[in-house]
């Protein structure tokens, strides 16, 4: 079990992280039950723990599988259909597995003005993938992102839970080298 | 101090004084800098006194709408018959805006203190700080600060022995711009899709979990502790009569020194762009500026001599918004830039209202068609027609947000549209 967390921190754990474990059940072990209990304790209604638990599934497994959604539905007294309707609304929950490093290149207006598309293309060519694919070695998935909130530091790139700022196409090989 | 550049407006730095100072993140470091001095003072005040003080200060909502904060707080029931909630809106996702993240990551305890004082003023028992999911590095700093504050007795039961209790929870979103709209935020907080709802009921009547709720922006709440400790008159030293105080500016696009700057309200927009940010990096002329984040009308280079207040920007035909100018130099092609903005709103529409769901995506498709040389002369009329259909007809202002830049780009840069269509 990982370090026990404070209940106030139960809804704000980074859920886009590098250590990808095989898809496993969420609430069969003490860690999962602890996270569920703590998240639920922060809200007057159980349903409000849904986003924190979808995040937990992704933190644990790298993506949110249909099985995990069913498990969450049961734990929070929701229907599986309702959980799917919420999970699919939010772009950050990966409904399919992704590479160990999810590379999101912001191409929204401020980054667009500073040639973010060229950065995006360079990431695709360096990783040998098309947008959204997992690279052959399982390391990378590259996608375009809407505004990442780092507009003054274009082009902004998010790799899992890290930000890279002022990225130019020439910086791309060095960034990829830095990722394990 | 701005970020990442320091500048010489030392006396204007209220919120950003400690940006860049890692010490300020920890509770001990923050207390050494004078932090948590306002909270004991607020604990001795009546909620009504705090509301009155913030009303006097003239503080206005920094999330874009500029609604007077004290007035908003005064809408909350005075005699609670159940829990009240405060939601701090840290879902910063307006293209062009990147100010709240600097508060989250450099002065998290300032925000926590502001949240607690506001919670006291509106009699809230729980503060939910809704941070956009992408902000992992910044929400982690805030989350750790909240835990530290719990352990030191600043948050939780019987705060500083006052008998008053208040919880704080940092809650992560997961990539939905519309969660930054206040009712969308509460829908999301309650475990739903971030779909806005029609007001009334207003949040102060029935908000999060069906209870009276106030939603305030990060920057608004961060200004509260200093108003409590220094007073309303002190805060009014900066800015103008109707728009007092300082504002965090987020300057992006073709600028020599893009970044976050704290400036007193009322400075001419052209000074923000040419003096503070150094104009364009290569001396190229400016073609257009979207002054308040991507959802505000474009201004041409000769329209920048306007006062950066809520009223001044409205008089200039635009809006202060989140004070996030996106600067476009003379080489910028307006149609692709506008297309990219429209694609953002098409992607982020929650889909409840037809005018928005269809309007934003057709706007993006038509702009793409024009950009690629397949436009027809009628397309300009169609775009104007879409502007009509998308204005003021939807639950929330997301559709209006694409109309503001779109209509202004058609009015002011029609020649660029026509040139692509004739080609």
Which parts of chain A are unreliable, with pLDDT below 50 for 5 consecutive residues or more?
A: none
Name the biggest interface.
A-B, 51 and 67 residues
What is the number of E strands of chain A? 4
CATH superfamily of the largest domain in chain B: NADH-ubiquinone oxidoreductase 51kDa subunit
Described by strand count, sense and barrel closure, the largest sheet of chain B is: 5 strands, mixed
Across the major sheet of chain B, the strand order is 6-5-9-7-8
Domain module count of chain A: 2
Number of helical regions of chain B: 18
Main sheet makeup of chain A:
4 strands, mixed
Beta-strand share of residues of chain A: 5-15%
> Average pLDDT value of chain B?
95
Concise overview:
The complex is a heterodimer of chains A (180) and B (423). With 180 residues, chain A is an alpha+beta fold. In chain A, 36% of the residues lie in helices and 10% in strands.
Describe it for me?
The complex is a heterodimer of chains A (180) and B (423). With 180 residues, chain A is of the alpha+beta class. Chain A has 2 domains: 7-87, Orthogonal Bundle (Arc Repressor Mutant, subunit A); 101-178, Glutaredoxin (3-Layer(aba) Sandwich). Chain A contains 7 helices and 4 strands. Chain A has helices spanning 30-40, 50-61, 66-75, 80-87, 109-113, 116-127, 172-178; strands spanning 101-106, 140-145, 157-159, 162-164. A 4-stranded mixed sheet of chain A has the order 2-1-3-4, covered by helices on one side. In chain A, a hairpin with a 2-residue loop joins strand 3 (157-159) and strand 4. Chain B is an alpha/beta fold and 423 residues long. Helix content of chain B is 41%, strand content 11%. Chain B contains 18 helices and 9 strands. Chain B has helices spanning 27-32, 38-44, 47-57, 69-74, 100-106, 108-121, 136-151, 182-189, 218-222, 224-230, 232-235, 269-276, 310-315, 334-348, 354-371, 378-390, 398-412, 414-422, and strands at residues 85-90, 126-131, 167-172, 213-217, 246-253, 259-264, 286-290, 299-300, 326-329. In chain B, strands 6-5-9-7-8 form a 5-stranded mixed sheet, sandwiched between helices. In chain B, strands 3-2-1-4 form a 4-stranded parallel sheet, sandwiched between helices. The longest helix of chain B is centred in the last third of the chain and has 18 residues, at 354-371. The mean pLDDT of chain B is 95. Chains A and B meet through helix 2 and helix 5 of A and helix 7, strand 3, strand 5 and helix 14 of B.
């Amino acid at each position: 079990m990982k370090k026990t967390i404070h209940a106030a921190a139960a809804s704000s754990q980074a859920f886009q992280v590098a250590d990808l474990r095989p898809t496993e059940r969420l609430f069969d072990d003490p860690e999962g039950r602890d996270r569920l209990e703590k998240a639920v304790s922060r809200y007057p209604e159980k349903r409000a723990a849904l986003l924190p638990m979808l995040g937990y599934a992704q933190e644990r497994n790298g993506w949110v599988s249909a099985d995990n959604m069913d498990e969450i539905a049961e734990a929070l007294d929701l229907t599986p259909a309702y959980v799917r309707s919420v999970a699919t609304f939010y772009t950050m929950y990966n409904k399919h597995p992704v590479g160990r490093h999810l590379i999101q290149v912001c191409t929204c207006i401020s980054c667009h003005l500073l040639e973010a598309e060229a950065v995006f293309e360079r990431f695709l060519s360096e990783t040998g993938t098309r947008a959204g694919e997992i690279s052959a070695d399982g390391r990378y998935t590259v996608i375009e992102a809407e505004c990442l909130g780092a507009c003054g530091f274009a082009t902004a790139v998010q790799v899992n839970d890290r930000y890279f700022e002022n990225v130019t196409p020439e910086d791309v090989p060095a960034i990829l080298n830095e990722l394990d | 101090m701005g970020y990442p550049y320091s500048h010489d407006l030392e006396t204007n730095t209220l919120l950003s004084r400690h940006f860049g100072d890692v010490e300020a993140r920890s509770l001990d470091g923050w207390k050494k800098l004078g932090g948590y001095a306002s909270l004991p003072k607020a604990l001795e005040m009546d909620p009504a006194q705090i509301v009155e003080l913030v009303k006097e200060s003239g503080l206005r909502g920094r999330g874009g709408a500029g609604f007077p904060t004290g007035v908003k707080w005064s809408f909350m029931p005075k005699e609670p018959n159940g829990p009240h909630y405060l939601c701090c809106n840290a879902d910063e996702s307006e293209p062009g805006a990147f100010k709240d993240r600097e508060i989250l990551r450099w002065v998290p305890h300032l925000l926590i203190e502001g949240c607690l004082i506001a919670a006291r003023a509106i009699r809230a028992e729980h503060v939910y700080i809704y941070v956009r999911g992408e902000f992992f590095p910044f929400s982690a700093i805030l989350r750790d600060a909240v835990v530290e504050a719990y352990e030191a007795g600043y948050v939780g039961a019987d705060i500083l022995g006052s008998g008053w209790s208040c919880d704080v929870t940092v809650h992560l979103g997961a990539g939905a711009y519309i969660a930054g709209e206040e009712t969308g935020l509460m829908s999301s907080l309650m475990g739903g899709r971030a779909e806005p709802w029609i007001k009334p009921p207003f949040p102060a009547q029935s908000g999060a979990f069906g209870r009276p709720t106030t939603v305030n922006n990060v920057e608004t709440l961060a200004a509260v502790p200093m108003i409590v400790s220094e007073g309303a008159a002190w805060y009014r030293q900066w800015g103008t009569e109707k728009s007092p105080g300082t504002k965090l500016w987020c300057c992006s696009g073709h600028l020599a020194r893009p970044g976050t700057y704290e400036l007193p309200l009322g400075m001419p927009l052209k000074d923000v762009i040419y003096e503070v940010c150094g104009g364009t990096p290569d001396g190229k002329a400016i073609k257009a500026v979207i002054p308040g984040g991507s959802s505000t009308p474009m201004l041409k280079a000769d329209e920048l001599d306007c006062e950066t207040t809520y009223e001044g920007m409205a008089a200039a035909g635009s809006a202060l918004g989140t004070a996030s100018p996106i600067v476009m130099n003379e080489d910028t092609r307006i149609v692709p830039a506008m297309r990219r903005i429209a694609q953002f709103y098409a992607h982020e529409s929650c889909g409840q209202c037809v005018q928005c769901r269809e309007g934003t995506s057709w706007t993006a498709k038509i702009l793409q068609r024009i950009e690629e040389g397949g436009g027809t002369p009628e397309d300009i009329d169609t775009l104007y027609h879409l502007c009509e259909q998308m204005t003021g007809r939807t639950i929330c202002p997301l559709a209006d947000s694409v109309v503001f830049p779109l209509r202004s780009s058609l009015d002011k840069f029609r020649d660029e549209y026509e040139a692509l269509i004739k080609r």
